[in-house]
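Lecture 7 notes: from sequence to structure.

We start with a single chain of 426 residues. Read the sequence below before looking at the structure.
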Amino acid sequence: MVSFAVIADDLTGANDTAVQFAKRGVGTSVQIDMHQEVPKSEGSRVVVVNTDSRDLSAADAYRVVKEAARHLQAEQVQTIYKKMDSTLRGNFAAEIAAVADVYQPEAVFIAPAYPRAGRMTVGGYHFLDGLPLEFTEIAHAPKTPVQDSYIPALIEEQTGRTAAVISLSVIKKGREAVAREVASCQKQGISWFIFDVVQEEDFLTIRQGTEAWPSALWAGSAGLADFLTASPELADTDEAGSGRRSGPVLIVAGSVSEKTHQQMQEVTRRNARLIKLPGEKVLTEDGFWQDCAAQVKQALAEGWNVLLATSESQQDVTAAVAAGSRAGLSGRDVSEQLAVVLGRIVAQLDMTKLSGMVLTGGDTAVHVLKTIGARYIEVVAEVATGIPLGKLHGGTGDGLWVVTKAGAFGQRDCFIAALNAIHGKA
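Now the structure, written as tokens:
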């Protein structure tokens, strides 16, 4: 029976949070489409709902997430974790408000940091690899740019609500200091709280310092989720090593992140053949994607692991955006069209000949999986920090192993680690 639910705004984020539960042996399933029935497999105690709402307006995101929360409440799910992007993309505050308006928690606790992945919060400002978000590539994301790193301002802008910052100086004093500060702010009528976090131990202090608010709504990234999971004493799942399939692996990279480009260079140097699907050509040459699909089929038939990518440099991204602009398309429109085409190419492949897939970029992952009819992912293990391995259920890829990765996540060799995990070599 499902006892705990996570609501996430995109598929890769849903999966990187799901694995925090799965790696502790807690049966966890991720819905690919929120309108599908909640998985009720015997082993599933946690369900992660993908609302696919990151790219919506604040009003539409609120509406969609509120619908999901009402459905879970009707299913008698009592505990909700609101997954938010660790770089604050999307309308995270509007979505938290939607869940809060349904569940009416006594407080809302927000901690988007993920120190192991280079995301930290100090003084209410959010940092990526040591820089405020407005000075990183996240500020130039084609669909959901973030140009302000001060979390209280973003909350005020999206919801009109006031949030207090529980500073690092308070957290370092210990759990009692955290509890006193929260109680003091509540006496002033504040019910939303942002917690500074710079290291994993801060999460534990925050969790212990807020025990007096058992019905609070928690919101954060996979980093915080790791401290909300079942106890570490639970045995690890043994699913990750079972049911391996022979055959090559297909990597589909729709992310425009520079980090993904670096990871592509590493895997093509050692383990995979690159087949490019340049956005500029997709937008200007009819039938180009079909030629690309034929190349993918041929390379897979020859036994190659294949990396299918829409860009391998920022120059490729710029060219695609420029081609879209000439056709009257926004950067958001270009990203959407490319994700759709990637799904079409994968739909033409014989899934039974693959041992697995690696999907990077939330839009890419959801389009590919919906196109092949997948219903949900049973998450079973963590390949690297925030990068899960799962098994597909439903559609032509039923039983196929899949690794998903947010574009800006992972070390240079993470695609190689994913290939090894799928092939059972890790």
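The chain has two domains: 4-226, 249-423. Keep this in mind for problem set 3.
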